[in-house]
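Researcher: Here's a chain I'd like modeled. Treat it as a single chain, no partners, no ligands.
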Amino acid sequence: MAMRWSDEVSGGPVGFGQDSWGVMLLKVVLVFVILMVLTLFSIWAERRVVARMQQRIGPKVNGPFGLLQSLADGMKLILKEDLIPKTADKVVFVLAPAIVVVPAFAAWTVIPFGPTVKLPWSDGRTALQLTDMPVAVIFVLAMASVGIYGIVLGGWSSGSTYSLLGGLRSSAQMISYEVSMGLSLVAVFLYAGSMSTSQIVAAQDKLWYGLILAPSFVIYVISMVGETNRAPFDLPEAEGELVGGFHTEYSSAKFMLFFLAEYVNMGTVAALATTLFLGGWHAPLPINLIWDGANSDYWPVLWFFGKVLCFLFLFIWLRGTLPRLRYDQFMHFGWMRLMPLSLLWILVVATIRTINLNGGIDRQWLFVAIALCVVAVVVLLFVGEKKQSDKAAQQEAATYDGFPVPPMSAVATERRAR
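Model: Modeled as a single isolated chain. Structure tokens:
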């Protein structure tokens, strides 16, 4: 059922904060176990799927179908020798992985896995969500921002130039695409009238926002790949340029924490996309029409993680098919393409919502105006690309065998004319 905000001084939603300490502790343990299992499965699935794309076998020795390969790799990393460079700031060097991994887990505290259900051992009821707050989505974005500090500090404290450059690259990339990600969520807030994850899911009981807010959904999906440093946007870890990126000097368990945080963050952005755009734990359209109990009891957990796994497959698919972008192209796309489109779409959505709330107008003229705006934006984008391509062609013409040729002096020009 949908959660409603309390009018009490505490300001908390009804249904949250009323569980016993035992139930709260059980929820914390379950969230931690689910994330660890999801990480192990994601690593295994990535290796198997990419191997299938490249006509290889992939892991198949440890456990059935190689399912225990990720666990074996984790144990190997824990048991390896832990090395700390002499030039490293040891305190910050040790704390940086924890600063990255703790916010990655904390972001899941406000993700709803399902509706309010009956406890198996008593007559009490509890929400399949650890907690909620009026600004739950902002809390998730804040946790992602805190994780950036760990990456920057890890690169700086290593005492290595390559690590420092990788940390700076990562911070610039994550901050840039986090802005686009945040702007893509504004349209959801306007339609749902709330930033609470449970209320946003409840508002999508009939129609998912991924359908009516498709531009926001597309912008978010692109931004979440850049936010998590995944291919083709894994530029902070470009082996050909920066050896290994910000974690070049890390080994053993500390390197494993960076690795763990990356995959947990993949699950976090996938869960947030599911919550805000794909109806959260609501069953897909054909199922909820033919089965009345699809959105009750513990069945919604299955629909929720099914949608999350689809996003994780998208991450793997992109890594196996697309080449890595050039860094300047990647940053130019984020600042000069995604961000203006996000701002324009927010303006369109706010205009539509204001018109609808004030009585509305003829939708035919409204759609015509929106179509004209879209055409104008596309034309302006192509004009900008044409100017850049012409400039690049001029620069390329002033080269010899790929090397830039400086302009000749007046004396040299005169001698050449003779």
